[in-house]
Design a protein that fits this description.
Elements lengths: L1 H15 L50 H8 L1 H4 L1 H21 L5 E12 L2 H4 L6 E15 L4 H67 L5 H35 L26 H4 L4 H22 L4 E12 L11 E10 L7 H67 L5 H35 L15
Length: 478
């Protein structure tokens, strides 16, 4: 008897090692050796991550060295409702993993009951008693022997989905924080333009008043007055439009930090920041630095495990059940030794005909894996595009910033000369208007480029994965 038990245990352990899921490998994707738009010397404080590094760097926005931005970013995790919803989804995925893992263990239940029964006299005859009590108390145990890996693959799929949900949470966190940083620098850029326009309106008001006096004294034509007035009103319109855009950005920042717009304000402050040096590293490292890539890869792993679940359905589902307890016609005798009852035995179920259902489920699982693999490759390609786009933007905007700085200097000199000639009576006011408009647009353009450079820096950090690292993916949610 003992040798039979040992043999049965050995066969069970051997069969329990069966797994019908295909061997999983991360889907291959085209990975270039280097970034086309990376500058020749790509070095700076933002160093490339090591793929094996499982520790998150965390507060990536501190690379910009702005204390006010740091304070705003610190409010996001506790206040942003989108993040709270994403965290709730992650908790659901974690609970789903726990539900799947519970199938590794037997289920145990207890039953108790009491009934008063009357048998049909036809059935009870010739028994003298047809009216009786039935009291029972029992415990039932059931256990599925995972011979074909159905439970193991279900658990593997659920755990991969949990990790994918953690990646989604990290991606949303990165996206919200990047949006906050971008909005912040755009707002400060608008503050710069607002300051330029406020100075311009003040200067145009003085110029308009001077032109009116010159007209009244017979030294200026009426057209000069009209041009000065039109120029002043156009500048006021631009200032009002910038103010509108600036306030909308302030409202957006309020929502991102979980504050009603009516209770939030940022005092005006011109943009003085410059983009930090950011190292893009190697394209291959991007696969370990982007949480959306990790989430897409984990979904491919989950889909691969589901193939094993589908294939296991072609084999018998073998279980073991046991029941034991007491049953008696008299409640007073329920727990006496003669009232014992028990049962123990294996069971097996296998559908013999399902009109191709299991084959269709298996094909569906394979197609789901193909879809997940394609989505992963597309996510990787999109990540490379994001990095290239923002490397290009930073390189080009640096050139634009340099050339625009020269344009501001030149337009300032031209304006000074036009005003001097007009004051000396050598030219009409049209030349002054043209020079002033050129100078104003040059200054506004320079301020816009400065804000776009900061936004491109934020976008590049986001494209590189922010402070996230590969490894224990769910650690980001913790």
């Amino acid at each position: 008897m003992r040798s039979r038990l040992i043999l049965l245990s050995g066969v069970t352990i051997l069969l329990a090692g069966c797994n019908f899921a295909p061997d999983y490998h991360r889907p291959e994707s085209a990975t270039p050796a280097s970034y086309k738009e990376a500058p020749a010397t790509d070095a700076g404080p933002w160093q490339p991550a090591q793929p094996a590094d499982a520790a998150a760097r965390g507060r990536w926005w501190t690379v910009f060295g702005n204390a006010e931005l740091d304070a705003l970013e610190d409010k996001v995790a506790d206040a942003n409702q989108d993040l709270k919803a994403a965290f709730a989804r992650f908790q659901q995925a974690r609970d789903a993993s726990a539900i799947a893992r519970a199938e590794y263990y037997p289920s145990l239940g207890a039953n108790a009951g009491f009934s008063r029964d009357r048998m049909s006299k036809t059935i009870a005859n010739p028994r003298p008693v047809s009216l009786y009590n039935d009291a029972s108390f029992s415990a039932d145990l059931s256990y599925e022997i995972d011979l074909w890996g159905r439970i193991r693959n279900t658990v593997a799929s659920a755990e991969a989905q949990e990790q994918a949900s953690a990646g989604d949470l990290a991606s949303l966190d990165l996206s919200i924080r990047a949006e906050l940083a971008s909005d912040y620098f755009s707002l400060r850029g608008d503050d710069t333009q607002q300051a330029i326009l406020d100075r311009t309106v003040d200067a145009y008001e003085k110029a308009y008043a001077l032109t009116v006096r010159r007209h009244d004294g017979g030294a200026a034509a009426e057209a000069d007055v009209d041009q000065a007035q039109a120029q002043l009103q156009i500048a006021k319109t631009q200032a009002a439009d910038i103010h509108l855009r600036r306030m909308q950005l302030e409202h957006a920042i309020a929502i991102l930090t979980g504050v009603p717009p009516s209770e939030f304000s940022l005092p005006p402050e011109p943009l003085r920041a410059t983009p930090p040096a950011i190292s893009a590293g190697l394209p291959a490292e991007l696969l370990e630095r982007r949480p959306d890539i990790a989430a897409a890869e984990r979904r491919a792993a989950a889909a691969n495990a589901q193939i094993g679940v589908a294939r296991a359905a072609f084999f018998p589902q073998i279980g073991l059940s046991a029941s034991g307890g007491f049953e008696s016609a008299l409640a007073s005798n329920l727990f006496n030794l003669p009232s014992r009852m028990w049962s123990l035995g294996p069971s097996a179920t296998l559908p013999l005909f399902d009109a191709g259902q299991r084959s269709a489920v298996t094909d569906q699982a394979r197609a789901a894996f193909d879809e997940a693999a394609a989505n992963y490759r597309e996510t990787v390609l999109g990540a490379f595009r994001d990095v290239e786009d923002n490397l290009l933007a930073l390189n080009q905007l640096q050139r634009e910033s340099d050339s625009q700085a020269e344009a501001v200097k030149a337009s300032g000199r031209a304006l000074y000369q036009a005003q001097a000639r007009y004051t000396g009576g050598l030219v009409n006011y049209l030349e002054v208007v043209t020079a002033e408009n050129t100078d104003l647009q040059a200054q506004l353009s320079a301020a816009d480029i400065a804000a776009r450079r900061m936004a491109a820096s934020v976008a590049l950090v986001k494209a590189l994965g922010g402070g996230w690292q590969a490894g224990t993916v769910s650690a980001a949610a913790d």
